[in-house]
Amino acid sequence: MIAKTTTGSDFEGALSYGAGQRKGRGKEPEDAPLLVVANVISGSPKEMAQDMQAVARLSRKIQKPVWHTVLSWKAGEEVTQAQKVAAARRYCELIGAPIDRHQVVVYEHRDKQHAHVHIYINRVPMDAGPALRTDNNFYRQPAITKQISQELGMQPLPERRQSVADTNPMRQQAREVVREIIKQLVAQPERAGKEWLQAKLEERGISTRYKHDNGGVLRGVSFELNGVAVTGQQVGYKATQLRELFATSPENAQQLPILPAPSSPRQQEEEEGKKQKPKGPRL
């Protein structure tokens, strides 16, 4: 499996292509079925695009909110529809856009000899938090597609058992609880940094562990609830996202220097008078 990603600003154009409705590139409905819809009301490409664009407007910084990834398998490889759906969902999670936080639309195309799906992600999340990052995609995606391939059953059984253990009910519940609590906390205007977040989570029975590099930069985060450990990536709040949140917190807000108030005209005259030397009569 390989992944190819582009970004853009036109949701309607992107989804129209996914649905096989782009001018000159029309497909029959059975050639471009809709596989996944998350946080979007299922409808025409135009209707879904309008929904996604409304969420994208929550961010003034992101000029290209459309994330388009094509997941492709090699020719002749048998891939079930369930595997395609699972691959698309897992890709979103691993790339940093879990479908419980982002709007996602996935189409399957059947116009090639090889199986492939088109994944459309709104980079701006539903909670208006940090947007899906686009840096280092070239290096990240090979590792992600390799992991997905292993989880889909393309590796020996022991590897598969190790990967699917992450889906046990206790771990899933821990992820959901931690994710929801963090979501509520970071939405508070009085958030004050990672120590504040750690203390607030501790009050709710969640322990937090931060990892920093030699320069003191936050590089990793994990949480533990009732003896079940989950990573920041698994709950949708990686170290990079937390760094951005902390950088915009009131605690780290940049303060402008306080300048002295300007002097009144009378004060200015008195000061000028002090500077002038008295002139006596000439002898």
What does this structure look like?
This protein is α+β, with helices and mostly antiparallel strands and 283 residues long. The protein folds into 2 domains: 2-166, 2-Layer Sandwich (BirA Bifunctional Protein, domain 2); 170-252, no CATH class. Helix content is 39%, strand content 18%. The protein contains 9 helices and 8 strands. The strands form 2 sheets. Strands 1-3-5-4-2 form a 5-stranded antiparallel beta sheet, sandwiched between helices. The protein has a 3-stranded antiparallel beta sheet with strand order 6-7-8. Strand 6 (206-212) and strand 7 (218-225) form a beta hairpin. The protein is globular, with a radius of gyration of 27 Å. The termini are far apart. The model is unreliable at 155-165 and 253-265 (pLDDT under 50).
What are its keywords?
single chain; 283 residues; alpha+beta; BirA Bifunctional Protein, domain 2; 2 domains; 5-stranded antiparallel sheet; 3-stranded antiparallel sheet; 8 strands; 39% helix; globular
Q: In percent terms, what proportion of residues is strand?
A: 15-25%
CATH architecture of the largest domain: 2-Layer Sandwich
Mean pLDDT: 81
Oligomer: single chain
Element order: H for helix, E for strand:
EHEHEHEEHHHHEEEHH
> What is the SS-derived class?
alpha+beta
Main sheet specs = 5 strands, antiparallel
Give the strand order of the largest sheet, numbering strands 1, 2, ... along the chain. Answer: 1-3-5-4-2
Radius of gyration from the alpha-carbon trace, in angstroms: 27 Å
Report the CATH C-level class of the largest domain: Alpha Beta
Low-confidence segments, given as residue ranges, are: 155-165, 253-265
CATH topology of the largest domain, by name, is: BirA Bifunctional Protein, domain 2
